[in-house]
Every structure is written in C-alpha cells, then in structure tokens.
Amino acid sequence: MMMENIAQETLDKAIKYADKAEIYLEREEKLEVNVQNQMVDFAKETSSYGVAVRVIINQKMGFAYTTDLSKIDLTIKNAVYNAKCNLADPNFDFAPYSKYPNVPDLYDKLIPQMEISDAVEFSKTMIQNSIDEKCQPTSGGTHAGSYETLILNSDGAYCQDLSTYFSAFISVNIPDGEGVSTAHESDTSRFMDLDPEQISGEACQVAKNSRGGKSIETADLNVLMDYDAAASLIYTLANAFNADNVQRGRSLYADKMDKQVLSPNLSIYDDGTLKKGLNSSRSDGEGIPTQKTTLVNKGVLKNFVHDLYTSKKAETETTGNGIRSSYADMPSVGFTNFILDFEEQKEISEIENGVMVKDLLGAHTANPISGDFSVEAMNAFKIDDGEISNPIRKAMLSGNIYQAFTESWAASTKTRQIGSFVLPQIVVSKLRIVG
After folding, report:
1. How distant is the alpha carbon of residue 194 from its chain centre?
2. Alpha-carbon dihedral angle through residues 51, 7, 281, 320, given to the nearest 10 degrees
3. Sheet holding 292-297, edge to edge
C-alpha cells in the first residue's frame, strides 16, 4: 500500500477519537559494511518501516508507534490511552497547512541501485590503500541508504521528503617506537561521490605525521582546530541556542538577546534548506517548512531554534526545528545544518606560536551551561613561526567554549559538514595547553 494511503486511512481512524491527530511514516533502505582488523567483518542490507501516531485530546498529548501495519488500530488505541493519562498543556499543537520549499540535491538515484557488493568493494579499497600506505586498518566501514518520510495531520499539514546518504570511515595504526600512532578519517555525502583512497590516505598521512611526538610545556596558546576538533567543541556552544534549554534555564544566552556574545566576525545560521545539507529537508519532523534562521549576526545574538511547543511557550514563531531521530521518537528541538560563517581568516602562516589539533577526546564532558571544558588533544602538532614544527606526544586542552569564540577566526575558506555542523578549520585565541 502507498505511504499516502496508509497515512490517510490512519488519520481518518485516529481523528474519530481525538481533537487533533498526526501521522508520521518513515521508510529506510540501507547497506552497512563494517571493517575490523584489515578485514570486512560483516555486511548487511536492511529495511525498516514505521508508523507513528500523535493525538491531542483536551490539551493532552498521546504518542504511539508500530512497525506492523496490521496493528495500526492498536497503535491508535495506545496513543489515545496515553493522551488520557497525561497532563494537559495548552502549548501542545500540530503544524498548520503550509507550502514547502524545494530543497535541491538531496537525492542520488544511484544509491538505491547500489548492491551490497559495491559497499564491500568500497571498504576493501580503503583497507588495501591503507596497507599500501604501510598502515594497519583497525576499524571502519561504509554505509549507504535512502530515506523517505511522510507527515500528515488533521490541521492540513502534508509533506513528503526523499533523500539519500553515503558515508565511510576508517581508523588506522602505524608503528611509532615501542607504541603506535593512530588516526581516523571519515566523510559523508548525499551522493555516491566519496573517494575511498582519499579517505584512507588522509587517515594514514595524519598517523604518519603524528609519529615521534615531543612533549610541550603548559602555556596559553592560539589553537587551530581542524574540522573534527572544532565540531566536537561546537556541540556545547550550539546547545545554548536551543530554545528548550533556554526555557529550562540551561543556556548561558537566555537573557542575552541582541547583545554581543561571540566574535564580531562570526555569524551563525541554522539552515534546513541548505543545498546538499546532510540534515536538509522540506519540512521538519512536525510538518513545519524548513528555513534559514539567523542565530548570531556578527557576534550579536538574534534568535534561538524552536519547535512548535517551545515557540508557543515563548509566544513566538517556530523556526522549523522540531527534529525526530526516528519514527519511534517524539519531535524535539534540534539543529538541521548549523553553519559557522566567519568574515575574517587567520591562516596557519599567521600563527607564530600555537597548536594545531585534528581531534579531541572527551568533548562530551564539557559543562553545557558554563561552557568549561578539559579534553585530550588527539593528533596535535606544534606551530612555530607559521609552520608545523613537530607532533605533540600528549596534551590536554582546556578553557571555556563561550569565551573562546569571542575571539576566533576561520583558518581556511573550505568548509565541511561534520554531523550537524558546517564549518571551516577554526582558530581560537589563548586556550590552555597542558603538557
């Protein structure tokens, strides 16, 4: 049965028992190949299908889902029961009828045609290229798939989204004296345009460059963060723009609207309509059209990201950031494509005394409210007189994420998307390096 027919029939049944009803369908076809110790460990092809039902009855919200189409009636019954057991809240609501944007380059027709053997061959190429580079692959893999969603509700919202994804990653070791030097590399695209030799080659190059590390004295230095390292720290910064955190008193920016909070050469956007964006779509998980939202303009706080619930509490408009992780979860405030846009650059040649860091270990331990962090620098390198002088054996990096980005620059014009974050390499001023 077509997704549209399933959604409409389910909605027709659900609305008989509720003031408002919403149906969300999700279908995913994916290939997955995992690598362990120079071998393809396993490969599988999976398919998932889920139907979620939300209802509002007397200002009470109920939710239920199923993967069995023969149990639609029971799922509706469970959603209704859950609503009646919950507390009333006037801020519960569903999306109104809307027109949706056309978002380009989210679907590659070649990906649904991929065979599991294609994904296996891609992974084997990464393995062999690593071996050719004298590195030992320790883990990795290739994932690809197509993703289709449909949302329909009793207020007239209706939207379908279709997208694809292709991702690969690899971790490698190389002998380094009595121990080993390690590194990893990954990439993700909406299209089947990744290069297995480039991915494994970059991982091996970093591992090789990291051999023979030297100690570093504790000091406050400028730090050039590569894409993965920057994305790890930005996660904590981004959560301060989440309206749910603001309303719960968990955001440092709660009372900073229209005030200077970051570097004046930094603007930040959340853009669900970004071309080729890994989290772009026509609508969010509630059926609200996606949009580009300015969060920071030249360092000045301008907005938070909202879903329907937080926007009604704040008596403002939703920004189309009601995100579902899957059909098995209710929508909540989240980010689409979180873009850091710097007006100024400070390239490595301009750094007299600093450190370059490829990745961070422990960034998730940063204090989400204060912004204080202490993390281990992975694949770090000393910068002297504008050039990398030597790898660093071991170092900790500490500071405050909010303070760090009050004086920051892009280190390159090239940007990459790491998860939700679209960003360049970033230079931040005077972080504490502990040798």
Report:
1. 19
2. -90
3. 300-301, 292-297, 266-271, 338-342, 421-423, 416-418
CA-CA distance, 63 to 230, in Å (whole number)? Answer: 37
Tell me the average pLDDT across 221-243: 96
Neighbours of 129 (CB within 10 A): 21
CB atoms within 10 A of CB 258: 9
Can you point out the beta strands (E) in 190-337? 219-225, 266-271, 292-297, 300-301, 322-323, 332-333
Q: Which two tokens stand for residue 203?
A: 């991982």
Please say whether the beta carbons of 204 and 215 come within 8 A.
Answer: no
* Cα 420 to Cα 410: distance, rounded to the nearest angstrom: 18
Strands 396-400 and 372-384 turn out to be: antiparallel
* 376 in Cβ contact with 360 (< 8 Å): yes
| Angle at CA of residue 268, ends 263 and 270, nearest 5° | 165
Listed residue (286, 310, 63, 65) closest to 161, CA to CA: 286
Residue 413 has pLDDT above 80, yes or no: yes
Contact 162, 147 (CB under 8 A): yes
pLDDT in tens, 193-205: 999 999 999 999 9
H or E stretch including 399? Answer: strand 396-400
Contacts (Cβ under 8 Å, ≥6 apart) of 12: none
By DSSP bridging, strand 39-57 and strand 292-297 are: unpaired
Q: Judge contact between 381 and 209, C-beta under 8 A.
A: yes
The band of 178, judged by pLDDT with boundaries at 50, 70 and 90, is confident
Q: What is the mean pLDDT of residues 400-421?
A: 96
Torsion angle in degrees (nearest 10) through CA of 351, 363, 293, 260: -60
Residue 136: how many CB atoms within 10 A of its CB? 18
| Amino acid identity for residue 146 in this structure | S
CATH classification (class only), 3-205: alpha beta
- Tell me phi and psi for residue 10, to 5 degrees: -65, -40
d(CA 256, CA 87): 32
Distances (CA, A) of 78 to 82, 84, 139, 271: 6, 10, 42, 35
DSSP string covering 327-378 = TTS--EE--S-EEEEES-B--GGG-SEEEEEEEEE-GGGS-TTT-EEEEEEE
CB environment 45-82: b (16+ within 10 A), e (fewer): eeeebbbbbbbbbeebbbbbbbeeeeebeebbbbbbeb
> Residue ranges of the domains in the chain?
3-205, 213-435
Is 0.90 surpassed by the pTM of this model?
A: yes
